[in-house]
Amino acid sequence: MHKHHSALGLATALRPVNPVTLIRPHAARRAARFFVEKFPGKTLYAVKANPSPDLIRLLWDSGVTHYDVASIAEVRMVRETLPAAVLCFMHPVKAEEAIAEAYFEHDVRTFSLDSMEELEKIVRATEGASDLTLCVRLRVSSEHSKLSLASKFGIAPSESKELLFAARQAADALGICFHVGSQAMTPDAYAQAMERVRQAIVEAAVTVDVIDVGGGFPSSYPGMEPPPLELYFETIHRAFESLPISYSAELWAEPGRALCAEYSSLVVRVEKRRGDELFINDGAYGALFDAAHVGWRFPVSLLREPDSRAKPMAFSFYGPTCDDLDHMTGPFMLPADVQAGDYLEIGMLGAYGCAMRTGFNGFGRAETVEVADEPMVSLYAAGTEEVASNVVTL
Ligand SMILES: Cc1ncc(COP(=O)(O)O)c(C=O)c1O
């Protein structure tokens, strides 16, 4: 892998024709250490957010030993990359063949479920195994989050009694899990979800061994600057301590975005300017799916030397493919004199960015280069003690 000292240095020295994915291992290492040291339980990395084997190795070296995998391809890849990792298959609807392969060939013992059918599938596929940790996924509100996960999965807490009871019979350890939606903007999201967990435990009157609060931990984006992560951890810890569970019960979390958003950014070239619209060489089918499809705003900066002195103005982007869908509204604030041939850095694309890249229309190619400079925004950069002041305001 090529290395360079900074995004600016790379753009000015190399003038790359294709988009370049920049990776910053130090940023992912810092995020991992933060979770490992401060989250009051076990941290499972949600592999879907960025399935790069390099990243997964780096998280392992930083102390992340558990991985939330959601497909058999993720199971195989993580097992091959990290033979000693603990894998938890946390997709509530799985192919029976995938469950069997995960259990018998890859040593997976933890599975999530949200229906009787799935429970029956797991029991059948594992041939009635007696060493399973089964996590029943509860449906909780996504109202405090930017991306909802409330409709597709999860059993309503009021309907969970029978399933919890049946899972208890089949499991060696019984867990309850949920997901408050991605980019949860307040710790209250977890406090409310934990109340639902309480209700479900009381109604089912079962012994629960694991509480898994899922993902949803936020990163910082323009217009979406969250409170310090410590407040989330404190809220979760307090709620966990007050649940009617055995004193040896474990607390788990499955962060995706918060562990890898700062790991990666993208250098793109402006191929054309039309007023306040910039035609760039990556887009909706590349690493910018969320910018196009859910209007996500990412930090941007012009990589030019000497620096532009023009005032910032709002731009939208068009990606390189042939259709109008390949459009990112932004607004993206850049100096008013941006022109064709300029390079831009688009930050915070380590989560659900590079992972979504396709080859549609022949534009999938992007080289990866490691850089040593800081990510454009960081929740972790200013040291881990003074967290209240380390959110960069955009
Ligand atoms: C089951 C599960 N866990 C964890 C995550 C990671 O969520 P986030 O990236 O918001 O932390 C997801 C994301 O979809 C998920 O479906």
Automatic annotation (TrEMBL):
One GO location term (cellular component): cytoplasm
Positions of the catalytic residues: C322 (proton donor)
An example Gene Ontology biological process: putrescine biosynthetic process from arginine, via ornithine
Transmembrane segments: none
Domain Orn/DAP/Arg decarboxylase 2 N-terminal: 31-261
Keyword hit for Lyase: yes
Cofactor: pyridoxal 5'-phosphate
E.C. no: 4.1.1.17
InterPro entries, per the entry: Ala_racemase/Decarboxylase_C, De-COase2_C, De-COase2_CS, De-COase2_N, De-COase2_pyr-phos_BS, Orn/DAP/Arg_de-COase, Orn_de-COase, PLP-binding_barrel
Modified residues (N6-(pyridoxal phosphate)lysine): K48
Assigned protein family: Belongs to the Orn/Lys/Arg decarboxylase class-II family.
Protein name listed in UniProt: ornithine decarboxylase
Natural source organism: Sphingomonas changbaiensis NBRC 104936
